[in-house]
């Protein structure tokens, strides 16, 4: 019985961790796609601004300004800080992967380990 437990516990733990990471990726990807739609709306707007579901996005001089951005999940961060990309990351996996949305609306997954 001990041998069976020694084999099953790490396997089950690994599967749970994989499922948690997959869920986090799915949430971040969906948020990135939602922000992408807002970026495209901002590009089409005469003032370069879109008040979207997750906050206000302004594009000026090829850089983003974000106001009142809220992912709806305390572990997901949305950041731009005057850069040409919006970064969507999950606190647990930020060093492993993240998503970006650029000023053309292109969504890209960041480095993966």
Order of helices and strands: HEEEEEEE
Runs in which pLDDT lies below 50 for 5 or more consecutive residues are none
Strand count, sense and barrel status of the largest sheet are: 4 strands, antiparallel
Report how far the terminal alpha carbons are from each other.
Answer: 35 Å
Major sheet strand order:
4-5-6-7
Helix content: 25-40%
Count of DSSP E strands?
Answer: 7
Instruction: Specify Rg, calculated over alpha carbons.
Output: 18 Å
> Which percent range describes the beta-strand content?
25-35%
Shape: elongated
Query: Could you say which structural class the secondary elements and strand pairing correspond to?
Result: alpha+beta
* Overall mean confidence score, pLDDT: 93
Number of helices: 1
Descriptive notes:
The protein is α+β, with helices and mostly antiparallel strands. The protein is about 40% helix and about 30% strand. It has one helix and seven strands. It has one helix at about 1-45; strands at about 50, 55-60, 65, 75-80, 85-90, 100, 105-110. A four-stranded antiparallel sheet has the order 4-5-6-7, with helices on one face. A three-stranded antiparallel sheet has the order 1-2-3, with helices on one face. Strand 6 and strand 7 (about 105-110) form a beta hairpin. The two termini are about 35 Å apart.
Which short descriptors sum up this protein?
113 residues, 3-stranded antiparallel sheet, 1 helix, 38% helix, alpha+beta
List the helices and strands and how they pair.
Layout: H1 2-44, E1 49-52, E2 55-60, E3 63-67, E4 76-79, E5 85-90, E6 99-102, E7 107-109
Antiparallel strand pairs: 1-2, 2-3, 4-5, 5-6, 6-7
């Amino acid at each position: 019985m001990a041998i069976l437990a020694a084999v099953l516990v790490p396997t089950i733990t690994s599967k749970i961790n994989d499922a948690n990471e997959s869920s986090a990726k799915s949430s971040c990807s969906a948020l990135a796609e939602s922000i992408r739609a807002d970026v495209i709306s901002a590009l089409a707007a005469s003032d370069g601004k879109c008040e979207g579901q997750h906050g206000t996005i302004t594009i000026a001089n090829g850089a983003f300004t974000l106001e009142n951005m809220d992912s709806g999940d305390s572990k997901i961060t949305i950041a731009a800080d005057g850069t040409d990309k919006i970064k969507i990351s999950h606190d647990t996996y930020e060093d492993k992967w993240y998503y970006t949305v650029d000023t053309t609306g292109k969504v890209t997954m960041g480095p993966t380990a």
